[in-house]
Amino acid sequence: MIRQHSRGAIALYSSLIISTVGMGLGVIASPPAAAYLIIQNLELQGRAGDTYESFMTRAQTIAATAVQRNFEGDLLASEVSITVNGRNNSMMTAVLRLRVTRRDWQRYPDARYWITYFPSAEMLLGFPRGGTAPTPVEPELPEFPE
Fold first, then answer.
1. Which backbone phi and psi does 42 adopt, to 5 degrees?
2. Is 11 inside any structural domain?
């Protein structure tokens, strides 16, 4: 059986062989590490007596905790996206999404700044009207050199 290789792969293998033989080393080159996005969906169950505000405060907290744990647990993750799905009165819908890069999280680890809220969630989950939803925070970020 004849194996076909792309010219790029043959050139890469040839250059690795030539460079390692030329140096007198028997080292095998490993591929470079690749950063990636972690996507996680979490579910938050409503409690008796929950207001929409208390429910959303818990949703923000679990999203922020999940981002922190993912960055701490996986050093190659360059970005994390957490979607919190709320369940209340047998209804379920996405209530918020927190998506942030590692660099942005290190510079400004306030989850409220990076969260996108889904405004129809309050009605879809059956919370009584008049509950106050969290207001998106838009603080001024300190200037950082690039």
1. -120, 155
2. yes
> Quick check: pTM over 0.85?
no
Residue 108, pLDDT score: 94
Which residue has tokens 């470079």? 32
Q: Is residue 136 part of a domain?
A: no
Residue 46: both structure tokens together: 């409503």
First to last CA, the chain: 53
Neighbours of 73 (CB within 10 A): 9
121: β partners: none
Q: Please check whether residue 135 lies inside any domain of the structure.
A: no
Is the Cα dihedral 44, 50, 54, 56 positive or negative? positive
In this structure, is residue 61 part of a structural domain? yes
